[in-house]
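Entry 14. Ran structure prediction on the chain below.
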Amino acid sequence: MIPAAPIPKENQGQPAPRIDGRLKVTGEARYAADMPLSNIAYGVLVTSDIARGRVKAIALEEARRQRGVLDIISYGDMDGVEKPEFGTSAATSLGPLHQKEIVHDGQIVALVVADTFEAASEAADRIKVDYDEQKPTATFGLPGGETVDAAGKSELYKEDLKAGDFDGAFAAAAVKIEAEYATSANTHNPMELFSTTCEWRDGKLTVYEPTQNTFGFRAAIARQLHMDQRDVRVICPYTGGGFGSKGPVTPRSAIVAVAARRVGRPVRCVVSRMQGFTTTTYRAETQHRIRIGATEDGHIAAFGHEGSEVCSRIDDYVVGGAEATARMYNYGSVMTKVRMVKCDRQTPGYMRSPPETPYMFPLESAMDELAVRLKMDPIELRRINDTDKDPVTGRPYSSRGVMRCFDEAAKVFGWSKRNPAPGSHRDGEWLIGWGCAMAVYPTNVGAATARVRLFADGKVEVQSSSHEIGTGIRTVAAQMAAEHLGVPLESVRVEMGDTDLPPAPVSGGSTSTASVCSAVLKACEGIRQRLADAAIGHGPLSGQQPASLRLSGQRLHSSDGASQPVSDVLASMQTGMIEQYAEFVPEGAPPDAASKLYQGKSTLIGGSHGKKLKYAFGAELVEVRIHSRSKEIRIPRMVGAFTAGRIMNTRTARSQLMGGMVWGMASGLLEATVVDPRNARYVNRDLQDYLLPVAADIGDVEVILLPEVDNDVNPAGVKGLGELGNVGTNAAVANAVYHATGRRIRRIPIRIEDMLV
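Output, structure tokens:
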């Protein structure tokens, strides 16, 4: 079997190719901006070129005179529309055309609508804005920033975790590590550009937009437009990369809807790559102070983590990753503190592993520093401090395969050959370094619904409003149905990404597979039960116990070998098709969690909440090569081993984890959104200057899927892994750089200039 399709181990599904793979590679898969609509008009955004101040005047006359211009939406045109309501369904509370105050660089000031994209672009270039500009605060350490405690400012971060006497334990520790770390801002750059297409018919609105949350989007846009949610339909069959950026509704969407209603025809607005840096969310830069006190044999007695995050002036978006780091090892005592620094920037938002990626970097870097101080192998240090319970609350983990991952990854990597002395590995003029780090992500699951239909000819239809954002959810949902209804995978058709379908939670937090597959599983069990109840009344299965009958090969089978074709059972029911709608509500969720989905409200359960802590784990080992003279940094190989419960499809799981590791490497070496401290404007807002990894940057990436059974997480036994792979990679890279050179670099990304003495 090819490496891209790993042979399944215990509790792992077959590496079936993506059922939509051919559509994607041939261009037949329709994304939101691909939807054909008649008589469509085109919108182009106009955005501010200051970060703080007020619009004194905006000149639209010359733009209106341009041939093909149909309308311009600007100040005063959105007064009857509600501002967005900041939360999981809206990226910010800013209604950009509701106020003339400018609160961040690239804020929307107008939308030009024309017959053609070219005409709209030319007219947009002719709009002149006169500002009353004020001095902005760009980032940490500059005048005007407001520092506030983060605890309690967000439902997702209610308190700073503490346990034991940290101050006393740290003061008494024989070995102490105290260091400051920093991560850079990162900008979402999915392959599919951000876009909104709106069409009105008979007072009803249809929105085509790349989204990770169709029902949440529908609820948010309906509220803004004072509409009944049932009069709004959101369609997004495929999303070309989201990673959090396409979860909430943006200020753009309502503007395009208003424009379409005014011009009386569909309007499509595709946001330019440059405007995507400012009109959507991003991962904000962070700063950290880590303090670790340990015994001379490596047992940690005190762990302190203080983190600071840049945020906007207008919203309280909290990452709060100390919630994760405080639970990772068997600390004797814990102290955490998270602060927000309010600056003149747009509101940050979810980006793949939002808390863990920036917060695990300092923890896993500090663990490496402690290992060096103790003259101990960094994997052994982690083994000494491994734990099966939460050091803060004492609750057990449902399962924790950290050291299994480290041991397997180390064996494949050849870690036993590592000389711990920095600079001890060379290949001619290349310095070689090996580093490691833990990967972790909470196991979340949400309420979900699904509809499954089984036809007499063996065909199956699965319906869910969930989103194919590249993870392979269509494929694994089809596999779940095929497995439990006893039909070939090719007989299953999956419909997704439409509010006319049964609702699913937001496709974020690595919840989709666990949530949707649990709902599909429940619907399939409902179908099996109904068929069994019908079959035991007469025919070859008469008198059998319904619970003992199973579906396989388009037949209903009993344990004693008797069977009956499903088509015959359906005929006895006087139907050619059986349909089952199911609502899955995870344990610990409110009873009305499924009904709330119809209102656009997702309920996610898991992680650190509940009787047991539920996490997926991994270990990542990285080799770096650094040229001794040019300081060029290369990554020839990475090895990651992971435990994530039931693996539905080893092919799609490997793809997700490999992509995550590549992104994690980019976090360590490449990606950084640079903000000018003088004017709080982004400098590198295109793919020429914003560095993303390409094939030449990546050597061998080996993904090891270790078997794990965890029946506590959800009925499907699935732990999400889409966000697991890129956690810890940045620290593993930095640790490898230290091993190669002896230089400890605590700010990422690490660039050539950081290596120069």
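Residues 512-535 form the longest helix (24 residues). Will compare against last week's run tomorrow.
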